[in-house]
Amino acid sequence: MSRSRSLTIGAVISLMILLIAAMSFIWVPYDVTQLSIPDKLQRPNWTHWLGTDHFGRDLFSMIMVGARTSIAVALLAVGIGIGLGVPLGLAAAARQGSLLDEVIMRTNDLIFAFPSLVIAILITALFGAGAMNAIIAIGIFNIPVFARVTRGGALSLWQREFILAARVSGKSALHISVEHILPNVSNLLIVQGTIQFSLGILAEAGLSYVGLGAQPPTPSWGRMLADAQTMVSFAPHLAIIPGSAIILTVLGLNLLGDGLRDLLDPKVRKGRG
Amino acid sequence: MSLLNVQNLSVKIGDLTVLDSISFDLKSGDILALTGESGSGKSMTALALMQLLPEAAICSGSIQLEGREMVGLDDPALCKLRGAQVSMVFQEPMTALNPVKTIGTQVMETLLEHGMAQKAKARQQAQQVLERVGLPAAQISMNSYPHQLSGGQRQRVVIAMAIALRPKLLIADEPTTALDVTTQAQILKLLKKLAKEDQMGMIMITHDLAVVADMADEIAVMQLGEIVEKAGPETLFTAMRHPYTKALFAASGHQVALPTLPPDPPPLLEVKDVYRSYTLPRRTLWQKPVQKPAVRGVSFELRRGERLGLVGESGCGKSTLTRAILGLDPIDKGDIRLNGQSLHGADADLRRDIQVVFQDPYGSFNPRHKVGRLIREPYHLLPTPPTPLDQDDAVVTVLKAVGLRAEDQFKYIHEFSGGQRQRIAIARALIIRPKLVIFDEAVSALDVSVRAQILDLIAALAEDYGLSYLFISHDLSVVRTITDRCLVMQNGEIVEHGQTADILDNPQHTYSQKLIAAAPKLPRISIGA
Amino acid sequence: MLRYTLKRALSLALSLCLASVIIFAVVEVAPGDPASFMLGINAQPDTVAALRAELGLDQGKFARYLAWIGGMLSGDFGLSYTYRSPVSDMIGERLWISLPLAIYALVISTAIAFPTGLYAASHRGKAGDVAVMGATQLGVAIPNFWFAMILVVIFAIKLRWFSAGGFAGWEDGLFLGLKSLTLPAIALALPQAAILSRVMRSALIETLSEDYIRTARAKGLGKRATLWRHALRNAMIPVLTIIGLQFSFLMAGAIIIEQVFFLPGLGRLVFQAITQRDLIVVESVVMLLVFAVILVNFLVDLAYAAVDPRLRDRT
């Protein structure tokens, strides 16, 4: 797929989902907390665009509100990853080979060795289920990812001559990291951010599926899937619809990430004079 | 019948015409040199001759090897020719070899691919070929990996792979550009020898006119995809006709006039007995860390207004020394003084009097900052930087001084060519009026004509600003014209120093003699009517 | 090579130690006393205290940590709080489901990813490549538990080729055992195959743009020979990393799939143990999973050195 097409489609989808989530604060077709048993298990029709679930709740509204949860959790988890991971990566690269670097890298590797899903379940189960703990659990595993990406990008930049020039100008490592290195790794971070965002959506869905994500009455796509499990043979739309929502969101974000990567790649952009 | 006959060869990539109707021919045993600056199409010609052009390229015209047409042949037929009838040697020996296969395997591959059935026989023959190129079994085992060899040795392996089957035609694309001067001389000698022994036709592509002067039976000068002039070296050097050729040769041998030195200048930079070693990574956990000395007892003086050259090959320690002078690396022993004050552990105050211009015009700048900001960076070193208004004025002044315009400060660096970027680098180095500028291979990455302009600029600035500088270069012809005195460095030590002209014409130390003998020389040319 | 192996082995041991400390610490810090949890809210304080003493929960943290480590090194994982049976037995049984499942899924994943990645890289930019890229984009976006549900609906309920869940056991033969693991393995494998395919493709594309590929062509090697003999081996290095990572993920990621298919594997075990506050089981299973990851990394590191001779000379 051509890079600009990837970017546009991805951007459009991602934006759409964001808008739906945002709009859910202002308006939803039906109130998701209202049960309406007589209306239960309807296939998509004109009154309920995506049908209803086993409690008669409108699926379209639930998808809208569920979008909120997924996006919020994934976004904040990425925030944790960037907020803590990027400074660590910058510090490790600035002091490459030192004890600090070794410690950061070894810790990174160690965290990578832990099965993230199991630990996330452990944390949410032991410390209490809910969106907050889900954010922390997912966020913790974002930290080494961003630390590693940042460090990698920073290391190759430290070798470049313009950094040498800055050092000759007497700037400190901290100053250089913030003024020169950070802006030049921001491309990598944006791309990685979209990837981790989409992974966060999947992780949140997984946690909600086993009951450890956002708790009822907050709707979440993962839990909608869990509820659908027993009824999937006679009401497949209950599983297909939330599943499609997850797939679409993740797909959109990944396409966006791919498109951004190509767009921001300096090798592609560099105009040789 | 000539070995190679090229008629109206053209290559287009998309809308761009990379090669425009090239024609030449080559006899067996002859060496044709293709020369020109970057963008002239010389590498494209090489790839076209091997029919290894990028997928998007469209090739038209005729390439006849021993009467057989190559353009339009299908890939299997071409594969039979490549390696056996026509071979190629590339520029970068570091990356031309597969890092995970032994050199023996890679040389054998050429043989096995073209029909040699038994592995044992291939192994034997591969060993012989490696001997031919100067890598006997006693010295380098066939089971070595590329990373265990030096640059020159790797290039020999690439040559071995290319000539294993005694091809009729060998194409060498800048085979020595990435190598040291002494290694370059050896490799060129080897290529010449092999061509004579096998009666191979050879096409030598290089931007270095001095290299071709020595070797070629015929020289073709290329510009923008066309051959603008083609003649034997005798004819070319005595009676060149095309204006581009004249410009090219003039630029190659370009001399600048440096302003005269004031009498008895005071010392500016004093380097006394500097030692610096690196700790090599430990090979085993229980071994003591090994120290590799990079700079061993270097002492020299640079006087105010003086232009001092520093020549040496890779690994001689000049980069370590430069970094030490710039304060980027500490020294183990010794002292470096600027204007009598020690730079050891000095703060920004003293550092500001030394600035640097680096080699790579593309990597020297943060791609995200505008030129104005880039030039201003050294102001960071001043305890009381001038007001923004004064800074603006300074930026404009220095941009004009390097031959650019005031508006250029609002552009991004990628909008400029290599030569222009070096001008900006010089502007950055000059803006705080340092006492000493270090040019670290500052013109090595530039095309010959651009280089001439930058040398002119440096000479002009030396006049206007009273510049003192240390000029580091591996190119002796550049050092000859742009420096008054010169240091020769080998293995961490200064082996010879003196007036540049004296050293280059009459070297005393064996290493200097070797270095200067190895450097290819441009013959005296007369630019004909 | 020996040097390299020893250094990696040391790294392995160190990581394991550190991991055990972290696991122990996290579980310790967690709220909720196992004893009171097991006995319910109305339990008497002395009953709770007695149970704590019985379970060894009244000893100091450090002592318990050492006992745990010591036990693990001799194969004794202690007694489950909930069931009072040896944890090693419980893990042992479940391992025989989780491990084959992970391997099965890895085999499927690799079998799909290698040919598709190879195909996409060698037909870069053409229709085949675009198709593969599109398919993998989709594959990466699919939650494996959702896919599992769909597979169950189609293949178990509608077509009745497989059972909808449960494990047949190995006693009745390899084939039947594998059959009950097939749908779960496919569900696990699909997103991983998509990721691996992309990695394979990009590793190959990157390798194909290296200079030594041009040299090989200049020697007269055809496109196919160049791909197989030069590009593939060098492209394996990043691919090996991902396979290593995938194995660990498959062992641990099966946790949710096991829920969908009612497979009595490690995932279900640890999940139940968490809900039951059976901390010993939780610690042991997590430790085992971490050990598996670190071990696989170690093996991958050794494989690197086998593939890339440059690593053998560096420390």
SSE layout:
The complex is a heterotrimer of chains A (273), B (529) and C (315).
Chain A: H1 3-23, H2 59-94, H3 99-113, H4 116-127, H5 131-158, H6 161-168, H7 173-209, H8 221-228, H9 237-264, H10 266-269
Helix pairs in contact in A: 1-2, 1-9, 2-3, 2-5, 2-7, 3-5, 4-5, 5-7, 7-8, 7-9, 8-9
Chain B: E1 4-13, E2 16-26, E3 31-35, H1 42-50, E4 57-65, E5 68-69, H2 75-81, E6 86-89, H3 93-96, H4 103-113, H5 119-132, H6 151-163, E7 169-173, H7 181-198, E8 201-206, H8 209-215, E9 218-223, E10 226-231, H9 233-239, H10 243-252, E11 267-279, E12 291-303, E13 307-311, H11 318-326, E14 333-338, E15 341-342, H12 348-351, E16 354-357, H13 371-376, H14 388-401, H15 418-430, E17 436-440, H16 448-465, E18 468-472, H17 476-482, E19 485-490, E20 493-499, H18 500-505, H19 510-518
Parallel strand pairs in B: 3-8, 3-9, 6-7, 7-8, 13-18, 13-19, 16-17, 17-18
Antiparallel strand pairs in B: 1-2, 1-4, 4-5, 9-10, 11-12, 11-14, 14-15, 19-20
Chain C: H1 2-29, H2 34-39, H3 45-55, H4 61-73, H5 87-122, H6 127-141, H7 144-158, H8 174-208, H9 211-218, H10 223-261, H11 266-275, H12 279-307, H13 309-313
Structure description:
The complex is a heterotrimer of chains A (273), B (529) and C (315). With 273 residues, chain A is mostly helical. Chain A contains ten helices and no strands. Chain A has helices at 3-23, 59-94, 99-113, 116-127, 131-158, 161-168, 173-209, 221-228, 237-264, 266-269. Chain B has helices at residues 42-50, 75-81, 93-96, 103-113, 119-132, 151-163, 181-198, 209-215, 233-239, 243-252, 318-326, 348-351, 371-376, 388-401, 418-430, 448-465, 476-482, 500-505, 510-518, and strands at residues 4-13, 16-26, 31-35, 57-65, 68-69, 86-89, 169-173, 201-206, 218-223, 226-231, 267-279, 291-303, 307-311, 333-338, 341-342, 354-357, 436-440, 468-472, 485-490, 493-499. Chain C has 315 residues and is an all-alpha fold. Chain C contains 13 helices and no strands. Chain C has helices spanning 2-29, 34-39, 45-55, 61-73, 87-122, 127-141, 144-158, 174-208, 211-218, 223-261, 266-275, 279-307, 309-313. In chain C, helix 6 (127-141) crosses helix 8 (174-208). The longest helix of chain C has 39 residues, at 223-261. The model of chain C has no long low-confidence stretch (mean pLDDT 83). At the A-C interface, helix 3, helix 4, helix 7 and helix 9 of A face helix 1, helix 6, helix 7, helix 10 and helix 11 of C.
